[in-house]
Protein backbone atom coordinates (compact mmCIF):
# COMPACT_ATOMS: atom_id res chain seq x y z
CA UNK A 1 0.00 0.00 0.00
CA UNK A 2 2.94 2.32 0.55
CA UNK A 3 3.72 2.16 -3.18
CA UNK A 4 0.29 3.34 -4.33
CA UNK A 5 0.49 6.24 -6.78
CA UNK A 6 -2.96 7.55 -5.84
CA UNK A 7 -2.55 10.64 -3.63
CA UNK A 8 -4.36 11.11 -0.31
CA UNK A 9 -4.97 7.42 0.17
CA UNK A 10 -6.83 6.52 3.35
CA UNK A 11 -6.12 3.04 4.73
CA UNK A 12 -8.43 1.52 7.32
CA UNK A 13 -7.48 -1.66 9.15
CA UNK A 14 -10.18 -3.54 11.05
CA UNK A 15 -9.10 -5.67 14.01
CA UNK A 16 -11.57 -8.55 14.24
CA UNK A 17 -10.03 -9.56 17.58
CA UNK A 18 -7.32 -11.62 15.97
CA UNK A 19 -5.43 -13.71 18.56
CA UNK A 20 -2.05 -13.24 16.86
CA UNK A 21 0.30 -10.25 16.95
CA UNK A 22 -0.83 -8.70 13.66
CA UNK A 23 -2.38 -5.64 15.36
CA UNK A 24 0.92 -4.86 17.12
CA UNK A 25 2.77 -5.31 13.83
CA UNK A 26 0.33 -2.93 12.11
CA UNK A 27 0.59 -0.34 14.90
CA UNK A 28 4.39 -0.43 14.77
CA UNK A 29 4.34 -0.16 10.97
CA UNK A 30 1.99 2.84 11.04
CA UNK A 31 4.10 4.54 13.70
CA UNK A 32 7.42 3.80 11.97
CA UNK A 33 6.24 5.22 8.64
CA UNK A 34 4.25 8.09 10.22
CA UNK A 35 1.12 7.14 8.33
CA UNK A 36 -1.40 9.65 9.64
CA UNK A 37 -3.97 8.57 7.06
CA UNK A 38 -3.90 4.96 8.29
CA UNK A 39 -6.33 3.99 11.05
CA UNK A 40 -7.06 0.85 13.03
CA UNK A 41 -10.57 0.15 14.28
CA UNK A 42 -11.13 -2.57 16.86
CA UNK A 43 -14.27 -4.71 16.91
CA UNK A 44 -15.44 -5.89 20.32
CA UNK A 45 -15.53 -9.54 19.24
CA UNK A 46 -14.56 -11.77 16.35
CA UNK A 47 -17.51 -11.18 14.04
CA UNK A 48 -16.50 -12.44 10.62
CA UNK A 49 -15.63 -10.91 7.29
CA UNK A 50 -19.05 -9.38 6.56
CA UNK A 51 -19.05 -7.35 9.77
CA UNK A 52 -15.46 -6.28 9.11
CA UNK A 53 -16.33 -5.06 5.61
CA UNK A 54 -19.42 -3.23 6.92
CA UNK A 55 -17.26 -1.45 9.49
CA UNK A 56 -15.06 -0.37 6.59
CA UNK A 57 -18.09 1.07 4.79
CA UNK A 58 -19.23 2.90 7.92
CA UNK A 59 -15.84 4.39 8.82
CA UNK A 60 -14.48 5.26 5.36
CA UNK A 61 -14.05 8.99 4.85
CA UNK A 62 -12.92 9.02 1.21
CA UNK A 63 -15.06 9.25 -1.91
CA UNK A 64 -14.05 5.75 -2.98
CA UNK A 65 -13.78 2.44 -1.16
CA UNK A 66 -11.63 -0.55 -2.13
CA UNK A 67 -11.54 -3.73 -0.04
CA UNK A 68 -8.22 -5.49 0.41
CA UNK A 69 -7.78 -8.61 2.51
CA UNK A 70 -4.69 -9.29 4.60
CA UNK A 71 -3.31 -11.81 2.11
CA UNK A 72 -3.86 -9.60 -0.96
CA UNK A 73 -1.48 -7.32 -2.82
CA UNK A 74 -2.20 -4.76 -5.52
CA UNK A 75 -0.06 -3.11 -8.17
CA UNK A 76 1.21 0.41 -7.40
CA UNK A 77 -1.16 1.98 -9.95
CA UNK A 78 -4.23 -0.07 -8.99
CA UNK A 79 -6.20 2.53 -7.02
CA UNK A 80 -5.21 5.42 -9.28
CA UNK A 81 -6.25 3.48 -12.39
CA UNK A 82 -9.61 2.45 -10.94
CA UNK A 83 -10.34 5.97 -9.67
CA UNK A 84 -9.48 7.44 -13.09
CA UNK A 85 -11.91 5.02 -14.74
CA UNK A 86 -14.61 5.88 -12.18
CA UNK A 87 -14.08 9.61 -12.69
CA UNK A 88 -14.09 9.34 -16.49
CA UNK A 89 -17.22 7.16 -16.66
CA UNK A 90 -19.18 8.32 -13.58
CA UNK A 91 -19.35 4.67 -12.51
CA UNK A 92 -20.57 3.72 -9.04
CA UNK A 93 -18.42 0.58 -9.24
CA UNK A 94 -15.29 -0.29 -11.22
CA UNK A 95 -14.19 -3.92 -11.50
CA UNK A 96 -10.70 -5.26 -12.13
CA UNK A 97 -9.34 -8.70 -12.88
CA UNK A 98 -7.46 -10.65 -10.20
CA UNK A 99 -4.15 -12.42 -10.43
CA UNK A 100 -3.63 -15.32 -8.04
CA UNK A 101 -0.38 -16.88 -6.91
CA UNK A 102 -0.10 -20.56 -6.08
CA UNK A 103 1.59 -20.76 -2.67
CA UNK A 104 3.32 -24.06 -3.43
CA UNK A 105 4.83 -23.08 -6.80
CA UNK A 106 4.76 -19.28 -6.86
CA UNK A 107 3.07 -19.51 -10.27
CA UNK A 108 0.83 -16.54 -11.09
CA UNK A 109 -2.23 -16.52 -13.30
CA UNK A 110 -5.41 -14.55 -13.86
CA UNK A 111 -7.85 -16.35 -11.57
CA UNK A 112 -10.74 -13.94 -11.88
CA UNK A 113 -11.16 -12.80 -15.42
CA UNK A 114 -13.82 -10.36 -16.52
CA UNK A 115 -15.75 -12.18 -19.22
CA UNK A 116 -18.09 -9.33 -20.15
CA UNK A 117 -17.34 -8.02 -23.62
CA UNK A 118 -18.63 -4.56 -22.76
CA UNK A 119 -16.28 -2.05 -21.17
CA UNK A 120 -19.28 -0.46 -19.45
CA UNK A 121 -22.36 -2.21 -18.16
CA UNK A 122 -25.13 0.23 -17.31
CA UNK A 123 -28.37 -0.28 -15.45
CA UNK A 124 -29.30 -2.59 -12.61
CA UNK A 125 -30.89 -5.20 -14.89
CA UNK A 126 -27.79 -5.43 -17.10
CA UNK A 127 -25.46 -5.63 -14.10
CA UNK A 128 -27.58 -8.36 -12.49
CA UNK A 129 -27.65 -10.24 -15.81
CA UNK A 130 -23.84 -10.03 -16.13
CA UNK A 131 -23.42 -11.41 -12.59
CA UNK A 132 -25.95 -14.21 -13.18
CA UNK A 133 -24.18 -15.21 -16.42
CA UNK A 134 -20.82 -15.31 -14.56
CA UNK A 135 -19.44 -12.48 -16.67
CA UNK A 136 -18.67 -10.67 -13.43
CA UNK A 137 -17.70 -12.19 -10.10
CA UNK A 138 -19.15 -11.27 -6.74
CA UNK A 139 -15.92 -10.91 -4.77
CA UNK A 140 -15.52 -7.59 -2.97
CA UNK A 141 -11.74 -7.39 -3.37
CA UNK A 142 -11.58 -6.56 -7.07
CA UNK A 143 -13.97 -3.61 -7.03
CA UNK A 144 -13.79 0.12 -6.35
CA UNK A 145 -17.04 1.59 -5.02
CA UNK A 146 -18.31 5.09 -4.41
CA UNK A 147 -18.62 5.07 -0.63
CA UNK A 148 -21.75 7.21 -0.46
CA UNK A 149 -23.45 5.05 -3.10
CA UNK A 150 -23.07 2.03 -0.82
CA UNK A 151 -24.30 3.93 2.23
CA UNK A 152 -27.19 5.73 0.54
CA UNK A 153 -28.47 2.50 -0.98
CA UNK A 154 -27.84 0.51 2.22
CA UNK A 155 -25.59 -1.91 0.35
CA UNK A 156 -23.99 -3.83 3.17
CA UNK A 157 -22.67 -7.36 3.51
CA UNK A 158 -24.92 -9.97 5.10
CA UNK A 159 -23.53 -11.08 8.44
CA UNK A 160 -22.20 -14.61 8.20
CA UNK A 161 -21.41 -14.55 4.48
CA UNK A 162 -17.76 -14.44 3.42
CA UNK A 163 -17.38 -12.60 0.12
From TrEMBL:
One of its GO terms (molecular function) is hexosyltransferase activity. Keywords: Glycosyltransferase, Transferase. Gene3D superfamilies: Spore Coat Polysaccharide Biosynthesis Protein SpsA, Chain A. SUPFAM superfamilies: Nucleotide-diphospho-sugar transferases (SSF53448). Residues 2-128 form the Glycosyltransferase 2-like domain. CDD domains: Glyco_tranf_GTA_type. This is Glycosyltransferases involved in cell wall biogenesis.
Amino acid sequence: MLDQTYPNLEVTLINDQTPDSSVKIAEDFISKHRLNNWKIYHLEENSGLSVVRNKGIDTAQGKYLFFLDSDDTITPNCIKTLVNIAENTNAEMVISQLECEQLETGEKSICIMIKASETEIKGNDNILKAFSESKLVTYAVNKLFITEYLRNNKLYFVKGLFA
